[in-house]
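Fold it.
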Amino acid sequence: MRLRHPLIIMFMLAASVLFVTSRFGPHASKASAAPQARSQSQKKVVPAKKPRVNYSQFSHRTHVESQKLECASCHQAPSKNWKEVRKGDAAFPDVTDFPEHASCLNCHRTQFFARERPAPVICSNCHIASSPRDTSRWLFPSLGDVTDPLKKRREFVSEFGVGFPHDKHIDVVGFNAPPPGRDPRGWFVMASLQEKKKDEPPKSCPICHETYQPQGNSSEEYVTKAPKNLGDNFWLKKGTFKTIPNSHTVCFTCHNADSGIAPEPKDCNVCHKLLAAEPSLKVDFDRKLAADMGITDRMILARWSRRVSAGAFRHEGGEHPDLNCLGCHNVTAFNTVDPKTMKVPVRSCGGAEGCHITATTDDGGALNFELDQKKKDPNSVCTKCHIIFGREGVPEDHPQAIPTPQPKVKES
C-alpha cells in the first residue's frame, strides 16, 4: 500500500525516532550496564589455595602449638620394646620407639590410605623403606647411646631444646650410689671427678660432659689431616669439644618411677622445649671452613655450629684440662634453651694467674697482643681464639677485661 497522506508519514517518522532514542540513547547505556554489573557482583570469589602439606616432614610445632596435643597423646612411656633396644643390665624403662599407628590414624587416616607408591609418604617419618614387605623403623632420635650398626639412624635437626637446670644438679650428679629400688648391677652412671685444680672440692661435670675425641698420648694432633704448609693457620684439633647427654640414660638414673624424683619419665614437656621457629643466633663457626677440613662428624658439627664464644677454643689444649669447669662456666645463669646465656665471658680467659689476659702485652697475654694489632690495623683479624668473630670490631668487654697495671714498688 502506498502511504500518500503526509500525516501518516510524519507519524511513522516520529515513532522511528522514539524507538531509536529509547534503544540507543543515554539512558540505554545505564540500563544495559546494570545487568552486567549485577552479573559481576554475583560471581563467586574463589578462595586462595592452601599450601600443600608435606607429610614426609613431621612437625611437632604443628601438633603442639596448633593442635594443642599433649606428649602422652602420641608417646607411650615406656615403649613396648624398651627391653629389646638396650640389652641386659643396660636396659631401663624409656621411650624407645615412635608412636603406634593408632596415634596417627585419628587425624591422618586420609594420608595413611593415600594411593601413593610404593607407600604413603607419611610412612617415611618412622619407617626406613616404607614398604609393606619391610616394616623396620628408624632408630628413635633420643637413643643416642645405642650404637648398634644394624639400627639405622635418621639425620634430622631436632625442633626441641632440653631445659636442664645446672645449678640444681652440680652438687648431686656425682652422688655415687644407685637410686632407691635400683639393682646396683644395673647402675649405669659411674661418678667421676671433674678436671679440677689442686685443693678444690670435686664437682661432677664429667658425669655428663667428657672430652670428645681426645688426643691423649697420640702424635696425631688434628681431627683431619692438615696441609703441610699450614703454618700458624687454624686447623681443628682433637679434644676441642665436650660431649653432652644424647639420651635419657643419665637422666633416668634419678628421675624414674622408683625414686619419685620429679620430673618423671612420662613428663616429657618439663625438659623438652620447642625452640624458636627461626632462631637468630650468631655463632663463631664457618661451615665452608669445616667442609674444607673434611669434618663430617655429627657431634663435632653440632657442637661447633652452636659456639657463641670462641670457635677455636680447645678444652684439651694447654692447661685447660687442669682447670675447674666452674671457673669459666657460670652455671647459675645457664638457660640451656637459650644459648646466649651460656656464653663464656672473656674475663674468664684471664684466670687467677693471668693466662691469656695480662696487665701488659709484655706479660704475654694473647688478648693484649690481638688488641695491639687491632689498634695498629683495624682490618687485622684476631685468630688466637676466633674464626668468624675475629674479622669484626673489638667487643666492649674485651678491653675492659684487661687489669690495670699495678705500680712498681720502689726498692729501698
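Residues 176 and 191 are 6 Å apart (CA to CA).
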